Amino acid sequence: MNTKRKADPRTVLGIVFIFISFGLAVNKPLPSHVLLIICNFYLWDVRAYRESVLYSGMYSIIAVSMFYIHYIPNSTIALMIVSLSYFIQKFVIAVMMIIFLKKKTSMPSIISAMQTMKFPNIIAIPLIVVFRYLPSLKEDYGCLKDSLKIRGISISGLRFLIHPIRSLELIIVPILFRSLRIAEELSTSVLLRGIENYKNRTNIYPLKFTKTDFVYGLYTAIAVGAVSYLQFSNIF
């Protein structure tokens, strides 16, 4: 893929939507593995090498555990592991594509793309809020962790296993109160920005399809065709 020129955010949004949808729809091992490889190409394109290794390793561990699942004698435990692994695999694909979206474009460009594509506010506003809130949530969690560490309280994985209810209380309650405050700030902000004004808004980020978008589109079409063939054919 040609990465010298920046892709149109509409192209990036389309790619992310397509592969997240495929990640949810695919239910065979081989097309799932191929889809993971394809998502890695997109992460490499934006130089997200660490994230690629992290999530590919997570996916690989799950795939290996699924391969040996028939050695577990307890059917209930085996079913729980299979169900959890299935959802984690879907989650990994979605997170990888969201990372690609985050690194490939910017929030103002995404907003401009949604306005150009006439996204209804009932869809656009929640997506924008989620994209803006996740970095804030990560920062708040880091501050909370540092605050608890200063007070001599550890929220490590071992403590969570020993005292799960207490650990959840220490984490979730402050995050919920912080989320309520952020929700109030966001609602005030969107009202001040004229969200209730239904007139056409100006766009300071002009969008234009280029040859880069054609390359991305061609690669995506080939990838979708390959995954679809593996999913719906009876060869594998």
From TrEMBL:
Transmembrane domains' residue ranges: 7-24, 53-71, 77-99, 119-135, 214-232
Entries under InterPro entries matching the protein: ABC/ECF_trnsptr_transmembrane, ECF_transporter_component
Cellular component GO terms held in the UniProt record: plasma membrane
Keyword Cell membrane (UniProt): yes
Keywords, ordered alphabetically: Cell membrane, Membrane, Transmembrane, Transmembrane helix
Major location (coarse): membrane
Subcellular location: Membrane
Membrane topology: Multi-pass membrane protein
Domain of life where this protein originates: Bacteria
PANTHER family: SLL0384 PROTEIN
UniProt-recorded name of the protein: Cobalt transport protein
Organism: Treponema denticola OTK
